[in-house]
Automatic annotation (TrEMBL), chains A, B:
It catalyses: adenosine + H2O + H(+) = inosine + NH4(+). Transmembrane segments: none annotated. GO terms for molecular function: adenosine deaminase activity; metal ion binding. One of its GO terms (cellular component) is extracellular space. Residues 21-92 form the Adenosine/AMP deaminase N-terminal domain. GO terms for biological process: adenosine catabolic process; inosine biosynthetic process. Its cofactor is Zn(2+). Its main location: secreted. Its EC number is 3.5.4.4. Belongs to the metallo-dependent hydrolases superfamily. Adenosine and AMP deaminases family. ADGF subfamily. The keyword Metal-binding applies. This is Adenosine deaminase.
Amino acid sequence: MSIVICLFYFIVATAAKNAIEDRNKLLERELKMMLGSDISLSDSEMKANDIIMDLKIKELDYAFHHPQTFNLSKHFFDYKDEVEDTELFKLLQQMPKGAVLHAHDTGLLSPDYVLELTYMKDLYVCFQKGQVQFLFSENIPKTPCAVKWQLLSDARLSSSNVEKFDADLRKHFTLVVSNPKEVYSDVNAAWRKFQQYFITTGPLLSYKPVWEQYFYDTLKAFREDNVMYIEIRSVLPELYDLDGNVYDSVETALIYKEVLDRFMEDYPDFYGAKLIYAPFRMVDTKTVKKYIDIAKEIKRLAPDFLAGFDLVGQEDIGAPTKDFLSELEEAKSELDFFFHAGETNWYGTSSDENLLDVIALDTKRIGHAFALIKHPVLLEEVKKRGIALEVNVVSNVVLKLVDDVRNHPLAAFLAQDLPVVLSSDDPGVWEATPLTHDFYVTFLGVASRHADLKMLKKLALNSLYYSTYPNKDKIVHEFEIRWTKFIDNIVKDKW
Amino acid sequence: MSIVICLFYFIVATAAKNAIEDRNKLLERELKMMLGSDISLSDSEMKANDIIMDLKIKELDYAFHHPQTFNLSKHFFDYKDEVEDTELFKLLQQMPKGAVLHAHDTGLLSPDYVLELTYMKDLYVCFQKGQVQFLFSENIPKTPCAVKWQLLSDARLSSSNVEKFDADLRKHFTLVVSNPKEVYSDVNAAWRKFQQYFITTGPLLSYKPVWEQYFYDTLKAFREDNVMYIEIRSVLPELYDLDGNVYDSVETALIYKEVLDRFMEDYPDFYGAKLIYAPFRMVDTKTVKKYIDIAKEIKRLAPDFLAGFDLVGQEDIGAPTKDFLSELEEAKSELDFFFHAGETNWYGTSSDENLLDVIALDTKRIGHAFALIKHPVLLEEVKKRGIALEVNVVSNVVLKLVDDVRNHPLAAFLAQDLPVVLSSDDPGVWEATPLTHDFYVTFLGVASRHADLKMLKKLALNSLYYSTYPNKDKIVHEFEIRWTKFIDNIVKDKW
């Protein structure tokens, strides 16, 4: 009898061991596949990793049992300030984060910065129908204004309350509100306000002296957030000055280049910037042809500065990429593409299928690629062709693609080690730091509980690897030096 | 010169053609992979498909340009009644939908049905602290009540307003509210109210005569929604009657079986039901062992009626499946498993990793599998092992996994032809039809704009194929007969 019982327990124990073995093997296979799993950590990195993971796990495990406390499943506006005080955020701020490869010209600096610009002299303002119009001018502008043009300094002075005047003005320079879910009820509502930001700030920021300063200060802000290099997308608007000069898109590009050169002289530890010319997509094919000519001209004049070409604007609205396929295909041999695609949660629509077009056009990277998760063939192609995905989680929350970042498709992209780079799109418009918030939200809110320093390092390295920076060895080498210093600081508790 | 120009245009035209060809090939590959793509439509089906797709495309394309009008990106409670009036909904109601493989005992019929039960005689009620307690009894119940037990008929009669009394009572039988996003602010808030529904209705529905009637009427309701066969999950509570008898879980299962036999005599066109014994997961291993013994006993007494075993309850809270791995592994040879797993949007946590355990335990199907999209290895395994995914989109919205169904991972499951079956979980608790709402939301809100009648048919066929109905040929044959009739009715405009 006892032999029978023993045998029985032996069978049970073996069977149980098998199930545990099976599940652990499945888990191991997944962890080995995950983005960052090919990174080996040094002893110091392992120590730093323990510190980082301790911060992460503590927060996650509490939230798992108290989901109502988990900030990151709420709207970004509800927690963005609060998380800045956490140790994990501060640590990520210190982390060398590599490059920013998806960021738009005038959406990068805070509303406070833009407000400060309105203290400049020669700025005229026209308040009408809840909107505000700006223009730098020596005399009263001749462009139409339903009410009246006045010097902004006069308007401010004659207001009964300067603080309130500035606070009201500032509202035009941000999407942040206290009740985002009500104000931004759908994707179009969010985009309307988003586009209004660019319309409002356009004449303010395209004043040549401001344009130059804004770009200089952008580079500075990104450098301070521990970014080494950026690829900036710009619509390249016409710039103007007080002497009546107008600078066309090609000239605007060259002005960018001049500012960059100056910045690099002042901050030689920065690794520079390149331009992706990214004009509006809501145009006809004739205009796209013109765009391509402009891009080619910039390339001719500043071949090292122009990274390539893109089209911007809300994908769901206006022409799909397919409409310009012929023109773009023609330009392919001369220009590198970095197209936006799949910034939508419609499935099977023309905007969703921009993903097909940009891959057919041999795009080097895809901006957003949010919808890619619904495209098994394209997921394979992206991996096979080494097309990087420029993922902007915070942007996708603010512009209403997803409410809870835990449902962001980036989680699945990371799980299968797709070539992901993190970016921040227009962090100034939603009052985020240049890149740290996106890393924080991804690390804590999107990635697996298991994702650790290896993933963080790989994301930073990806941003260098998939950039068009010409000397990868050099920039990666410098990254490694900064990374080692960062790790040492963590281990020595100096961050 | 003209030859050069001609040659130039020829090159351009060829190149352009290539890009179009490429994108179309990529699209074709995806459409060929999609769930339902292996179905061939007859001429009649093609005509019906045109009608269905016309309804779908019209609605989708309008919503694409006016996203604020798109009901299905809102909360289910905000549109569930409205969509019932659409032609597409009515058409889907008529559609033979195959089987329901994921539905829970007492969550299936509407609050109006439950309210009606409170008009039965011998029902006592105890109102206390905003909650309500019920008990059928010949005399005043002896179980504790903070205020007082009274006959419900007396309480109703002595209320100043019967309509209001009933409306207040009805609130305990539904999760539907007019402001769902405020009331159900997080997953725990939703689950609390959800669990309270089962606690409140428990003593009402576990009264043996009610239990029998409820199951009979469930079968009727599902049959009327054009479901042929169901696999019902039950916690198998103890039942009671006025004579003081108490019926244990095994007896409750046999009572189910008796009701089913009676129903099948009354409605021989129905294809029957099987039971998945699914007790609460928030227990210790000793209790799980007891559960397994109960399941084995039911299997011994009614081998054709018991489909298998599962565990229920909020996965994020309480013990992960891993804790019972040994006990479950031991039972594997005798019981088929149909486990819930991955009903979570946490990633890398114990509830997320229940997916690993249930696959290691050779589960036949996975209930929900919401988190599976983040598990590339498991996605492969599920396909390789033919493990069906019981997806419950509406449930996932109501129980706070996802706000906008367009972001439901089901879209990706359908895209890669995973073995999906649609189900409705607890449609009575959120006032949905037995299965039509889930088909409607999936077809219009989740699946690709390209998904058509082929996908609908395949989903229905999947539900039969992945069921445990013993004679697949027979049930599929009957399905085909009903399907042909359904198609004829559409084509003849008779639906």
